[in-house]
Amino acid sequence: MSFVYEKIMGGKKGLTGFIILATLILIIFPLFLDAFRLNLVGKYLTYAFVAVSLVLLWGYGGILSLGQGIFFGLGGYAMAMFLKLEASSPENTTIQSTPGIPDFMDWNQLTELPWFWEPFTSFTFTILAVLIVPAAFAYIIGSAMFKRRVGGVYFAIITQVIAVILTVLIVGQQGVTGGINGITDLRTLHGWDITSDSAKNIFYFINCGLLLTVILASRFILTSKFGRILLAIRDKEDRVRFSGYDVANFKIFIFCFAAMISAIGGAMFTLQVGFMSPSFVGIVPSIEMVIFAAVGGRMSLIGAVYGTLLINYGKSAFSESFPEMWLFLIGGLFIAVVMLFPNGLAGLWNDYGHHITNKFVFISKAFSKLVPQSLLKKVEDAR
Amino acid sequence: MDAYTSSELISIFAMQGFSGISLFSVLLLMALGLAIIFGQMGVINMAHGEFMTVGAYTTYFMATLTETYFPAFMPYYFVFAIVVAFIVAGILGYLAEFALIRHLYKRPLDTLLATWGLSLIMQQSFRSLFGAREVSPTLPEWLLGSYQPTETIYIPINGMFVLGLTAVVTLGVYYLMFKSRWGLRVRATTQNRVMSGAVGINTKKVDRYTFALGCGIAGIAGAAFTTIASTGPTTGTLYIVDTFMVVVFGGAASLFGTIASAFSIAQAQSILEFFISGSMAKVYTLLALVVILMFKPEGLFASKVRR
């Protein structure tokens, strides 16, 4: 029991934060938000998977990946391919010249399903693909880079270039990927209508459950010996290497794990929102996801979730009323978060939060002193 | 490829080659600035593309100004526009270094994010100042048209002009970096910052001027860019990734490497574009670069010094 409490929940402080977050997303949001807003929050929470993965990777591992959108996209596309195949059964697509293939393929004069689409008719395969394909891809990138001791800025740029390659590829090969519009018009999952409000509600709770699980799993990794070595690598890579650890393997593992988390987020995004497009794969979304983690606090798994929610709330609020101000604001935020408060909201809370609570205690104590003792006695007597 | 005769193929290669030269020129001008900054300070300036856009908009602004007030001056304004683009982008770069970059030299990853924020702010400023629509300046007569050495080959004059400009700037940078006292100080700082400081070089000042110079060259790239395409608020972001690749592939801090890698990337992309679709040409070029970089992470012409 103490193992669970210390290693997974992160002790008293970690547990409190976790419970507050869980209450917020599992109870307060569903109670007070309408179906549309709740679905929106659900969408934001799928980004939070990426933000959490960046906390692991960047905050603790010191590896800045500017291409987490790659993995978000891979996961999302895998799920979208499955749903699309189900949506384009021969009965649904009788008006096409080749029934039984997705509509965009028909528009692009394809007459049969490409080979890599075939296995996505199986749901089991799709789930495995969501988890394994991004991790395997991350393994290839990671082992090629980290084994050759490429890191820091170089790594950031290479991941960015891979994100560009993937986006250009998806947009360019519209016959097999759906092009710039992405894969749209997803309707059912095993015959169950996923566009209804009740389905979106269910996805919201699944989403929350998965996110909380991911946070716990990540915390387990970070509090383990592995996490401590990861932190050591971030701070003094050479010294860890000279102590006999194979630094590259640690980095590869955390990169693959982060890729897997991001992919789960992507798959949940497809389910929650009902489409997937290349605009969630490229450089811009990838960097935006870094700022979610940075604002929340790059060292705080739970902070990353708040950061994601806050920025996305700000984005939708601002782009409704002052669209031109939003870029100034987010640009300024990038600069401010780096220069003024590098540990984000979580850092601010750690620095000033206890002052606030202390002040509360102080004020209430001071207040009780102001009240004459005789008065208190009278109150007690009256009881 | 069987459909083409050999003489047609030669013409295709020549013409695509020349159109690749325009791309090469812009990429090289962009990459020169980025490489100097990255080589010296280990800082990647994500807003570099926006400094190029500053140059392009400056040229547009100069063109409109000349057209309205001094129409007789039109044939010559472009040369001045290049100088003004350099100065404006340089001053903005100086200010950016002063306000932002110098606080972050110890944290290169954070600089990536901060300069990305800067680029967003600059993009929105362009949009507010010049509108979201793409603009292009009225070019002087002598830049238009093309030169035709054989019947099947057309060489656009603007491409040749840009190439000439790039050559002049590259030579200028070479002279500045390798022949002047200032260049000596820059190279000393690049090699060993602490020791340079100890022998009396004001490394902070060197940093600031290097950054301003790099941004100024990006401004020139912007002026050159206006001759081959129109400028919009997000033009810079289209080129920034390619420019990174040029710098990384060439091996940072190697002038020759930067030239060679800009040339090979631009030509590969341009010649491939004729035979396969533009997007696939880009995919193959970038993919090849990533694969090569996986085997040679330090780039093609990295200095042999172990840091």
Automatic annotation (TrEMBL), chain A:
<dbReference type="InterPro" id="IPR043428">
    <property type="entry name" value="LivM-like"/>
</dbReference>
<protein>
    <submittedName>
        <fullName>Amino acid/amide ABC transporter membrane protein 2, HAAT family</fullName>
    </submittedName>
</protein>
<dbReference type="Pfam" id="PF02653">
    <property type="entry name" value="BPD_transp_2"/>
</dbReference>
<feature type="transmembrane region" description="Helical">
    <location>
        <begin position="289"/>
        <end position="313"/>
    </location>
</feature>
<keyword id="KW-0812">Transmembrane</keyword>
<dbReference type="GO" id="GO:0005886">
    <property type="term" value="C:plasma membrane"/>
</dbReference>
<keyword id="KW-1003">Cell membrane</keyword>
<dbReference type="InterPro" id="IPR017778">
    <property type="entry name" value="ABC_transptr_urea_perm_UrtC"/>
</dbReference>
<feature type="transmembrane region" description="Helical">
    <location>
        <begin position="120"/>
        <end position="141"/>
    </location>
</feature>
<feature type="transmembrane region" description="Helical">
    <location>
        <begin position="45"/>
        <end position="74"/>
    </location>
</feature>
<feature type="transmembrane region" description="Helical">
    <location>
        <begin position="325"/>
        <end position="345"/>
    </location>
</feature>
<keyword id="KW-0472">Membrane</keyword>
<keyword id="KW-1133">Transmembrane helix</keyword>
<feature type="transmembrane region" description="Helical">
    <location>
        <begin position="243"/>
        <end position="269"/>
    </location>
</feature>
<feature type="transmembrane region" description="Helical">
    <location>
        <begin position="202"/>
        <end position="222"/>
    </location>
</feature>
<dbReference type="InterPro" id="IPR001851">
    <property type="entry name" value="ABC_transp_permease"/>
</dbReference>
<dbReference type="GO" id="GO:0015658">
    <property type="term" value="F:branched-chain amino acid transmembrane transporter activity"/>
</dbReference>
<feature type="transmembrane region" description="Helical">
    <location>
        <begin position="153"/>
        <end position="172"/>
    </location>
</feature>
<feature type="transmembrane region" description="Helical">
    <location>
        <begin position="15"/>
        <end position="33"/>
    </location>
</feature>
Automatic annotation (TrEMBL), chain B:
<keyword id="KW-0029">Amino-acid transport</keyword>
<dbReference type="GO" id="GO:0006865">
    <property type="term" value="P:amino acid transport"/>
</dbReference>
<feature type="transmembrane region" description="Helical">
    <location>
        <begin position="76"/>
        <end position="100"/>
    </location>
</feature>
<keyword id="KW-0813">Transport</keyword>
<dbReference type="InterPro" id="IPR052157">
    <property type="entry name" value="BCAA_transport_permease"/>
</dbReference>
<comment type="similarity">
    <text>Belongs to the binding-protein-dependent transport system permease family. LivHM subfamily.</text>
</comment>
<feature type="transmembrane region" description="Helical">
    <location>
        <begin position="274"/>
        <end position="295"/>
    </location>
</feature>
<dbReference type="InterPro" id="IPR001851">
    <property type="entry name" value="ABC_transp_permease"/>
</dbReference>
<dbReference type="GO" id="GO:0005886">
    <property type="term" value="C:plasma membrane"/>
</dbReference>
<feature type="transmembrane region" description="Helical">
    <location>
        <begin position="238"/>
        <end position="262"/>
    </location>
</feature>
<keyword id="KW-1133">Transmembrane helix</keyword>
<keyword id="KW-1003">Cell membrane</keyword>
<feature type="transmembrane region" description="Helical">
    <location>
        <begin position="51"/>
        <end position="70"/>
    </location>
</feature>
<feature type="transmembrane region" description="Helical">
    <location>
        <begin position="153"/>
        <end position="177"/>
    </location>
</feature>
<keyword id="KW-0472">Membrane</keyword>
<dbReference type="InterPro" id="IPR017779">
    <property type="entry name" value="ABC_UrtB_bac"/>
</dbReference>
<dbReference type="GO" id="GO:0022857">
    <property type="term" value="F:transmembrane transporter activity"/>
</dbReference>
<dbReference type="Pfam" id="PF02653">
    <property type="entry name" value="BPD_transp_2"/>
</dbReference>
<keyword id="KW-0812">Transmembrane</keyword>
<feature type="transmembrane region" description="Helical">
    <location>
        <begin position="12"/>
        <end position="39"/>
    </location>
</feature>
<protein>
    <submittedName>
        <fullName>Amino acid/amide ABC transporter membrane protein 1, HAAT family</fullName>
    </submittedName>
</protein>
<feature type="transmembrane region" description="Helical">
    <location>
        <begin position="211"/>
        <end position="232"/>
    </location>
</feature>
